[in-house]
């Protein structure tokens, strides 16, 4: 459980840092770069969520639908 | 003490979501989904023990395993549908959430059809022949 709890902090940290980088890049006038940073951060977090979702579905399959 | 852990996790995640939501609502949604997944996964691990006891009881009392299997499948479908619908509802898509719940209901009905037919056949067998006259 401890390892997974840190993942929540990781996601929140990634979100805050991405927002910071986004605003800094926007101040520098590089709008397109800022959007790419947002997209990449989003994909990284999406990977984490999807991996956990896969774990959950495998667990439910083995417990409830025992195939 | 595990309950305290779960509540603390929820409170902490809520604060983090409120902080992140100001800048990036998308990350806030993913964070909420992740927290929900985590708590669900944690609770599922606990339910496993209960399911084992149920299986043991069913084996000992000689109930055909197909019934217990169907009931467990129905419970699993209900959990998955509820969870997915809640996450989608969090994102504000009420109509898709209600469709997910509808699909869950239909699948549960399909699962329950064999049991219902067995019940009907049992009742028909209990009735004495020609009682309808």
Give an overview in words:
Chain A: This is Stage III sporulation protein AC. Chain A: It comes from Paenibacillus pinisoli. Chain A: The chain crosses the membrane at residues 6-25, 34-53. Chain A: Keywords: Membrane, Transmembrane, Transmembrane helix. The complex is a heterodimer of chains A (67) and B (133). With 67 residues, chain A is mainly alpha-helical. Chain A is built from 2 helices and no strands. Chain A has one domain (2-64). Helices cover 90% and strands 0% of the residues of chain A. The longest helix of chain A has 34 residues, at 31-64. Chain A starts with a helix and ends with a helix. Chain B is mainly alpha-helical. Chain B folds into 2 domains: 1-45; 64-133. In chain B, helix 1 runs antiparallel to helix 2 and helix 3 (65-90) packs antiparallel against helix 4. The longest helix of chain B has 37 residues, at 25-61. The N and C termini of chain B lie far apart (65 Å). Classes of the chains: A mainly alpha (67), B mainly alpha (133). Chains A and B meet through helix 1 and helix 2 of A and helix 1, helix 2 and helix 3 of B.
């Amino acid at each position: 459980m401890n390892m997974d709890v840190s993942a929540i902090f990781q996601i929140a940290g990634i979100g805050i840092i991405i927002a910071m980088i986004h605003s800094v890049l926007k101040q520098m006038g590089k709008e397109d770069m800022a959007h790419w940073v947002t997209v990449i951060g989003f994909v990284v977090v999406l990977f984490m969520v999807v991996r956990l979702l896969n774990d959950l579905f495998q667990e439910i399959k083995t417990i409830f639908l025992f195939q | 003490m595990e309950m305290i852990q779960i509540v603390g996790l929820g409170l902490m995640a809520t604060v983090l979501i409120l902080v992140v939501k100001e800048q990036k609502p998308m990350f806030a949604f993913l964070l909420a989904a992740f927290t929900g997944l985590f708590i669900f996964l944690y609770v599922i691990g606990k339910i496993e023990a209960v399911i084992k006891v149920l299986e043991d009881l069913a084996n000992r009392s000689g109930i055909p395993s197909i019934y217990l299997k169907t009931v467990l499948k129905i419970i699993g479908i209900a959990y998955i549908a509820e969870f997915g619908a809640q996450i989608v509802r969090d994102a504000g898509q009420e109509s898709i959430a209600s469709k997910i719940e509808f699909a869950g209901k239909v699948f549960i009905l399909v699962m329950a059809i064999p049991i219902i037919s067995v019940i009907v056949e049992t009742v028909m067998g209990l009735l004495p022949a020609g009682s309808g006259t």
